[in-house]
Amino acid sequence: MIFIKKTKILHIFFLIIILNSCAKEKKKVELSDNELPKTTLPKMKPLAKVEPKLTASYIFLKTQEIKSFYSKNWPNNSLNGSFLVAQDGQIIYEKYEGYANFRDKTLITKSTPLHLASVSKVLTATAILKLVNAKRIRLDQKVNTILKEFPYSDITVETLLNHRSGLRNYAYFTDRDKTVWDRHNILTNKDILKIMATKDIGLEFKPDTRFSYCNTNYAMLALIIEKVTKLSYEKAMEQMIFKPLGMKNTYVFNYERDKDSAVTSYKGNKVEIGLDYLDAVYGDKNIYSTARDILKFDRARNNSNFLTPKLNALVYKPYSNERKGTKNYGLGIRMVNFENGENFYFHNGWWHGNTSSYITLQKEGVTIIALSNKFTRKTYDVRKVSSLFGNYPFRIKDE
């Protein structure tokens, strides 16, 4: 009888252990974006899979090849900025040269945040895509169902992302007519929305009939992020992307807070370029970051849990096919669809003296990043490095 009781006690004991183990296992299960409570924001996650380790001999060979490119592209270490090449998340080559500020000789280092210019669009698009993935908004959703003031009834979230909305560039409809906007006042995203709603700003063309790259699209996407998350764009980007990925040297420029402390930009002859009335608008630009932080971001975009496979395929789909050609645009990413079957995904940027280039070679797991705060088109020539890793025939003009 005593033996039976002891056996029952042991059974109960082991049952409790098994149940506790199951409970712990359940806690480890991560919810997908669309399973999250509506009060919880979808967030980027670092790349989960273990990436293959590059051999020392391979790294040495590629380093020599990249060094050769670097010395030709920026002779005498004339780069004023950051340059990084990585494969499978492992940095093969990085270089930091020049000054964040020529007056006080502040050097650019691996932790110096530089203006991403239009590469910021890739990050804005990423936040929007995470919200789509979480079913907080839809790609085909009309913008005026989210931003009630938005005056154009046929424009969708998708046509903002792929630049097929027909919106006019805010820089052009605010720079001449004082009855529309006085350039002595700093323009904001909400001002752009209000102007379009009240000043009879017509569309450039009927929505979704052709491609026209336009910064206004991404200024509106930033407002959508704010509306849906109930946070400022800055806070939403911090919570959804920067902090989860450990992007410690990345921030959204706040005009009042950062105008005197952010890295200065320069003309090619080192003449300082001051800020103007457009410098408070975000979403299309105004993210400052480092090459190493963008590498973290790129690897996270290659995570299998970044988006559903169906949505991820739409990101890299070429949307503008009215005219035959190799250049195209997806959802927040530029692309070249070469005739040899290779697809090259990238985004460039230019704002004031800042130039930027972000390249992601998905098949090869390669990330190439170049940032500069002294104007030069050589930033865009880093695409040539892609030919060291795959069959990318670069005989096309820089944009």
From TrEMBL:
Gene3D superfamilies: DD-peptidase/beta-lactamase superfamily
InterPro entries named in the record: AmpC-like, Beta-lactam-related, Beta-lactam/transpept-like
Domain of life per record: Bacteria
Record-annotated Beta-lactamase-related domain positions: 82-379
Annotated protein name in UniProt: CubicO group peptidase, beta-lactamase class C family
Organism: Flavobacterium segetis
